[in-house]
Amino acid sequence: MDHHYDEPVYLISVVAKVLSIHPQTLRQYEREGLVEPSRTDGKIRLYSQRDIDRIKLILRLTRDMGVNLAGVDVILKLKNQIHEFENLIDELRLELSKQKNPNATSKAVVKHKNSFDLIFYEKK
User: Fold this and answer.
1) Are 58 and 72 in contact (CB under 8 A)?
2) HTH merR-type domain location, by residue (predicted)?
3) Total domain count for the chain?
4) What is the C-alpha to C-alpha distance for residues 121 and 112, in angstroms, rounded to an integer?
5) Which pTM does this prediction carry?
């Protein structure tokens, strides 16, 4: 049975067994805001494959690298920010490649973000 990566299909007991952790650990991760499983109308937690992969990353950070949960939270937020920046850079590169002014000496794209401005110039 194939499921979409983000489809919530796994019960907490199944996830705990597959990852060899106690269900209470999963509840703690949820309380800490590290993972957000979906809920059925009856409030039963359902995890997607994306959730499971995120939990595997949390376990690697805590077990293998000795990071505490506060550190894990910071790492996950930074990882998410990096992903957003990579998407923005791809978007800006695409915009630069679409600019078609042969008379311009340099091409630039300016993006205004909440706390800063990004200005990208095409390499010559």
Assistant:
1) yes
2) 9-78
3) 1
4) 15
5) 0.72
Instruction: Compute the CA torsion angle 87, 29, 37, 52 (nearest 10 deg).
Output: 70
The domain in which residue 31 lies consists of 8-100
CA distance 69 to 57: 12
| Those residues with Cβ within 8 angstroms of residue 61's Cβ, 6 or more apart along the chain or in another chain | 67, 71, 72, 75
Q: What is the CATH number of the domain that holds 42?
A: 1.10.1660.10
Instruction: Please report, in tens digits, the pLDDT of each residue of the chain (124 residues total).
Output: 567 888 989 999 999 999 999 999 999 999 999 999 999 999 999 999 999 999 999 999 999 999 999 999 999 999 999 999 999 999 888 888 887 655 555 566 666 666 566 666 666 5
